[in-house]
Amino acid sequence: MEGLKFAKTHEWVKVEGDLAIIGLTDFAQEELGDIVYAEPEPEGSQVELEDIIGTVESVKAASDLYAPVSGEIVEANSEIEDAPEMINQAPWETWFVKIRMDDPSQLDQLLDKDAYDAFSEEEKA
Predict the structure, then answer these.
(1) CATH of the domain at 18
(2) DSSP 92-110
(3) For residue range 71-99, what is the model confidence (pLDDT) as tens digits?
(4) What is the span of the domain harbouring residue 33?
C-alpha cells in the first residue's frame, strides 16, 4: 500500500511512470461483501475524470468504479471477470485497469492513506 493514492469513490491508484493502475479499496470490497461479478472497461477506451471504468456486483449491491484520472485504458484485467472473488481476497493486488494519464497533475486531487482512512471512517459512521 506504500505510495498509493485514493479517490473518495473508493478506488486506489498506483502510479508507474505515466500509468495509473487502479483497483477497488479494501474498504469498498468489505462494504460490498462477496463480489460475484466484475467487469473492467475495455482497452482502448478514452476516459475522462470520473467516467466509469468498471463495474462490480456483490451479493449485496452493484457498484461502479470511477476514473480518478483522465486518459486511455491501455490494459484491462480480464482475470477478474473469471475470478471476481480475487477482489475480496486481495484487494490491494487486484487491479481493474491501467490508464495512460493525460494529465498527471490530476493525481494531486487524490488522498494519501491517512486522509483516505479518515474519510472511510466518516463513511462508516
Answers:
(1) 2.40.50.100
(2) TT-EEEEEEES-GGGGGGS
(3) 999 999 999 999 999 999 999 999 999 99
(4) 5-124
